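Q: My labmate handed me this sequence with no annotations at all. I'd like to see what the chain might look like in three dimensions before we decide whether it's worth expressing. Could you predict it?
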Amino acid sequence: MTLVPTISITTPDLESKDFIMNSPLSPSAPQSPTIFDVVKNMDDMPELGSDDELALDQPIITEEPQELQDHDHLHRDTQQQEEEQQKNTVISQDVRQFYHNKSILITGATGFIGKAVFWKLLHSLHGDIDRIFLLIRMGPSHRRLSNPIVRLQEEILSNKAFISLRRQMGTTVFDQLIREKVVPINGDFMEHNLGLSTNDHTMLVKHVNVILHCAGNMDGNERLDISVKVNAAGTNSLINLANECGLLSSFVHLSPLQIYGSSGVACDRVGILPEESSVEDIIDHIVESNLEDLPVIMNQVRPYYQNVYTFSKALAEQVLVSDVRKKQITNSQQFPIGIIRLGHIGPSVSEPLKGWADEVNGANGVILLTGRGTRIIDTNHGDMTADVIPVDFAVRTIIACAATMTPPPTTFVLPMTDDTKPDTTPERTSSTPTIGNNRDSTSSYSSTGTAATLATAATEPANEISGRPSQSSSTGTLSMNYHAEDCFPYIYHVSATGMRAITWRLAYEAMRHYWTRTTGINLAPANSYFTASAQGLSRARTVMNSLRSAASVYISNTTTTNTGNNGGGDSNGWRSARPSSKRSSHRMSKSVDKAARLAPNVMRTYTAMNHYNNNNYNKKSQQATSLLLYHGGPWIAQLKQRLREDTASEIFDPYILVPEDADTVFWMNYFTNSSYGMHYFVGTEPNVRLPTAAIGWSCALQFQGAGSNDAHGVIDHQVRSEIYSPDQMNKRTYRMMEHLKHLLVQDEAAATQQQQKDEVWLVDVDDSLEDWSQDQTVINAEHDKRLVLGKWRKKVGSNDDAVKVVVLNDKRVNQAIHQITQNAGVSKQTAVNEAMKILIRMSERTQLTFVWFTGSFLKSFFDHMFESVRISEESIRYIRDSTLGKRVVYVPVSKSILDPLLVWYISIRYHLPVPALVCDEVMAQLGPISDIYRLAGAYYVKRDKHQRSPLNSAVTAAYTQVLLREHGALSMCLEKSRSRTGKYQEAFDDEMIDMVMESTLQSNQSRTSTSTVSKVANSDLTSPPESPASPATPTSTTTGMDASTTGSTPRKAHRDVMIVPINISYEIVPELGFLIDQVLDQQPKGVYMGNSNNSSNNNNNNTLSSMSGNNMPSTRSSPLLASQAPSSPLPNMVRPSQAMDRRNRLLDGIDAPKKCGRVHVGIGQLISIQDVAAEYNKSSSDKSDEQSNLANIIVKRIQHSQHEALVVTPLSLVCAIILYGRATGGVCLGKIKELLDWLRIEILERQYKIDWQDGEDLEAIIFSVFKLINEPKNLIIEGKEMTDDTNIKVNDHADNIMTLSYYSNQIVDIFLLDAFFSVIYLSFSEDTVSEDEFIDRFRFLVQLLENEFVLTWDVDKQFKTIMSRYEKEGVIRKKENNQLSLKVNMETSHVRYEQLIFLASLIYPTIDTYWITSCSLSALERVPTLPRSIVPLLSQWIATHLIAGRRTIYREVLSTESSRMAVDVFMAMGFLTEFKAKEKLSPDAQILLHELKIPTTETLIELCGQNSDGGMTPVSPIDPEGMMKALMAQIQMNRANSNMADLCQQIDSYRLGAASQRESFQNAQVFQKCLKQIKGILQVDVSFAKKQKVDLNDAEDGLVQLVYALRVNSTTSNDRSTRRISEAYNLK
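A: Here is what I predict for the chain of 1628 residues:
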């Protein structure tokens, strides 16, 4: 067999003529003696295979000694059979079995790779391994870190990766695992024999089975002797220790892939050892040299190795080969040794956490410096492969490699010493001149030998990738029987090049995308960065920029950063609640400084390869070397095969993390996440989250380079202008975006400037539309894209005549006109003209270029407003497949005014049918928002059917059908207005769904005949109408006639309509502040109400004015106060939470979040109208009012599908947990983490989606939520340092509470059934209860809150479901005699009991609101009637007293929306009745109420049944169970004799803490106390009526006085009641 050949580079005898003739340059004598000359003169015994045995004509390979060759030939066949048997034996054993009961020694455990290896062993093999020994170097003696146990705690276990693992495994299990299986040992690679004590040495020799050598000094600028001592001499000491271990099964050593620079060595070779002397002697000489001699030695080494790190690592490989050679000669037993050569290591893909990074070694420093604005990536590297290995990929390779290696057969061969010319320009940058002859002239390098060996490599690449290289046919210098897989030690090459890694140009763009969006730093785009003009940046300038950046603050625009892990022995990570910028900046400056030292050496490896490319040097050799270098070699191929065959080892397969066919998007996301990892884990920035979407999700705002192919090129197009420069157009777009954003989130100061801004807005929009209309790229947009958009006209109004004809020919319009002419006696022409006016008023008026502009602008605007807009790729495919050849109606849940625009943008972005937007007429008065709606193709209708005339309804239905046929898609909302509490709302009966149904089930329009009406209309047209330009429905699609013709159930008349239920989840709703003002019935002063003048007066050429139509309302009002907001009874009331909040002065300078977080678009199950109609026809025999019944069925299905489409945001979960903590005075950070983990599991089990990826750091999620909800304003974090014990509570202000409550309510629907169960469970104080009583309470609670939460439950079915679930979980247990045992309490299971309290807390505020509303209705026992609109204000007033008296902890009771709903519920339950004020009040009373802004059309309420006696029936709270039964009996008897006081007390029994209060009846008299308070404000000397000199009876006088008192007390600043209300809003 062949021994390792060595090459002499200084022996004069080898200066042959062949070398001179083949050398490109003439050799010259060395200028000074080298270290190798000195070593040569040492008295050293020559080794076998030295250059003394080489022939001159074969300078590369040394023949094996004859005796070894004979021995090899005699036993080769037998040994090959044994080898195959060994391999087969190992393959049957999986990775986990290999590590069973084995002890592992990890070196470098405090380093980046070492920590990751340690984490993976704990995570995946903690139950299998025996012990893990960690060799940890002591710190200086004067520091606390001199103890390895302390370093283990503070540098390893306090890392976020291990904190997360501890939480996942459980604190007790993890801590026990560390105590029992982890042994930190004091060791130092700078010391002799690793600095081990005798006891530690003995323990390791006795127990260690696997050694994973991850330690090393990676600083290429380190002193030569230190680097060699750590990397080479330390490896020598470690292999000596391994030789003493009698039970060693595997030894793994890590090396850099690019030993020489970029070229490295092949997988069957080791780095050049430039002297025949032993590697031990070379190491000893370097270590013992004087400091002044080290630079001279390094200068002689530098032509072969680019720095001390790569040289010392090459020596370490030679140490291992030398050890194997010695044991081979002595026939000693060999244990498996693997050398894993890794490319540059970067942050993780997913393990331990996504984007996890530690330190700035490898590619980490490059990513960090790039984010700092340093040009660390050479500008001519743009097209080179970004060869970065994720750390978790490397870790899996290391662990799997150790498990799959086998002892070598006796026929193994040693790796050959490399004879390939190494990189000779390792320090070259873009401005460094080319070095000439970089090798010493006395080198024994032979170009002939190099060519031969590379030719051999070049013939083998395909087979070598598969693990079975073919035999070499090289010209005689290489043995014919030599295989790379016969080499030992086994050498593995790990590179991203074989996994389709992207170029540095794309990698830079991904990093730039993250840093610019997150920190605001200005980084040049890739097309500007990687240019020829930028290549003049010298290496010196690069280093100086790095050093300058190290002295600056890490992120200049970041006001808060996170502190380091500087806790004591606690393994929890420490953060600062108010992070110190100085501390974090100091730590980051050190990291940047270290990165500036290390990163240039990393990038030089790419520089050397680029030098070869530019100089066209030996490209055939380079290609062959690259194949051997980057495709891993046979052992990597065998490892892949082995892991693929063993499914049990999938968790150790690196190619599951990074597939070999990884696409560009994968690598772009990787570099984006890596930038986040450096920012968060190394930069300690607490307020950032993982930026990329989960697998299977697409970002509609994704930057170019990683974007989806679905994107329209037109909306991504940078429009060209003949007048404005690109910079002016960008400024114009930014000005428009800011204007729109301020309009959504405006405050009082901004409101006064809106009129002037509107004028600027109109000019900007007109200029933009003009530019887009003249750009040829937009004009020449592909026809297939227009098909997706529908038949948008090229010019506004070009299709008006055709639409008029179709609408006026509609049967419904004809019938309405006929009724008008018959009943009202007007002429047909007048009726037709009125129909045309209605049509013109509602028509959408846009054109193709406007649509393109709107798509482009919305992309920029949403990118400006939100961090991302995400939608599932599966949902996109689902919509495409399901709507092919059909018409589409998108129905989003109404949460924001941006809902329809987001749906519209998603449609145009992903080539889905782009809808026309169905909007209420009030939406035409919203200023700039209305302008965008118009440009997107909105049309305006009266949604309230009671305000529509029959003709209006007919025209609306006809025009809706025309648009649905013409464009193929519509978008509408079911709700009347946006939700102001975060809860789902009932559908508004506007009959829009009925109109959509008619468009597919009925034939109301004909395009082949002209009716009399259309002839009348056409007589006024200036030109004869043309046929419609809409896509004609094929005749074959009309499969039947309408129901009115056949007299049966509607049949298919047109193409089917698919309804797409949508639920958009906002992390931050932009206009939430105004929604909260409305829910509190308050309006800020000075709110912008728009320009009252017609917009066309400001600009004669205004394009928008031509789109608005002749009769379009011109008033431009705030979008936040229009959109069908309920009218406020207090229009001039200032928000007390703003007026009285003294903290406003303290919070000046604290900016609100710049963006509104993320947006997730959830898609529910699509609904086919024709399929639902067919099902209804089969199942229903009742044909009366079937259209209305069918519409109700469709609406319910839409809402159900919308609810299931919810994408849960962590923000909603955190808000719910913080609000839950009010009952205990706050909640600690550790408890937040526990509840979040539990809630995530529950949500996923219920098949909901959540914006929380596997491997995402939990603390990053929590702190990003704190940032989004404006933590300084809304939260109180106690203490300066934040640990798991830090208490966090909500700032008890009404608007803050309502903000958090809004987001918390978004998850209530998921846990609503559990919340009902928990409330009832906690309402009992006994351990055993009757099941009948349990279900009675359940029924009552459902009936009380079913309208509030829009429930359509089968109560008995839901009760059985929830009881079965909690019986399985052991919360309850059924006993004999229909009894239930309540098993969970604080003593038996405090965790489960707290979970029940949390679930109940989701609806406790609503129960309190209903309770307080019932208390406020005690006024009806003093005042017989009340205006219905005054009840919410009365409830607010009562709530302030109960809050001040600590009767409730929930500020949500100030909500007027829930109190309005409570009145409806009480009326449905039979406790109240209503009538018109005109029916019972005297005219004088009506006039006085009108002066108090109570209209004469107001509805009044009064008590019914027993309550009508004016409260004469006494309230006697006795046995609560008996009272419950009595009340339930009253409910079943339609509450003929029910009592409001009883209802109040019954609701009170469900409230928080009611079970513990029941015995003392602490709240029993609250109803009477509230009545007493109300009587108090009515006791005045002179009533309001008497002041007005109006005589009223006592009942009417009391009614007017109560309304007057509430009005005055709410608007007067000096009254005590106002101060009480303010105190409730701003409770100290």
